[in-house]
Amino acid sequence: MHPRQAEFLQNPKYAGDSRWIEECQSVYITSARFKNEWFWRTFKTVVEESFTNKRIPYNFFMGDIYLSILFGLKTKSDYYKAIKQSGELDFEMEDLNIMIGEAEDAFFTRDDFQKNQVIKTAFIMPLPKDIIGHKKLNNRPKRPNEYRILFIDYAFANTTGKSENDNTIIGCMYGIYEDKIMKRGVEYLTTHEASDTLGTANLIRKLFWLYHCDYIVLD
Questions:
Q1: Is the CB of residue 91 less than 8 Å from the CB of residue 31?
Q2: Which domain holds residue 31?
């Protein structure tokens, strides 16, 4: 972000003359992403400034896979490969150049969801060596007014078209009564291969007792 120090500027004839100083240039190249990321805010600023700023030149260029095919940068085969090999969101962002965000009247924003995807005080499932060695994992003790639930979203082998096996989702959540309000939270979340039914059943049994669950909720 510094002006280019061209050698001719050392010549006394040109030194100190602001006419010969080159303006810095910033170039951003990226695929479309999520609207809650910094890039979307920067992009909107660039578009606005390209029409309104009379001192600093701004330019932008956008293209999708159809434009790439038109100018020979990609082929129709690349298009069909992208559809088969990419997920829906990846295809929309990487190939169709669509920015992903929430609806205009959405109650929750995508930024809210991403911030809540991180479990700050997660439950750590103890391993057999941790139990034998009485290792302290600093898991939160269960409170008297607390209910704990083990929830499972079962998947079964060969249920998806893109892969041979789907994944079973297993999670641990709590509900605590405080001031006549049930405060809820998720403290553990994992996946397990749907083809391993015995492994799934054993993991459910372990979590039920180790997390001190009151209920199991099945989907």
A1: no
A2: 7-62
Within this chain, do residues 53 and 138 fall inside the same structural domain, yes or no?
no
What is the maximal distance between C-alpha atoms in the chain?
Answer: 85
148 in the same domain as 58: no
Domain for residue 98, yes or no? no
With a CB cutoff of 8 Å and minimum separation 6, the contacts of 218 are 151, 152, 154
Tens place of pLDDT for every residue, the chain, 219 residues?
Answer: 777 878 888 888 888 788 888 888 889 898 898 888 888 899 999 999 999 999 889 999 999 999 999 999 999 999 999 999 988 889 999 999 999 888 778 888 888 887 777 888 899 999 989 989 989 899 999 998 999 999 999 887 655 555 555 789 999 999 998 888 999 999 999 999 888 889 999 999 999 999 999 999 998
Q: Where are the beta strands (DSSP E) in 111-212?
A: 146-153, 167-178, 181-193
Does 14 reside within a domain?
Answer: yes
Tell me if 21 is assigned to some domain: yes
Domain count, the chain: 2
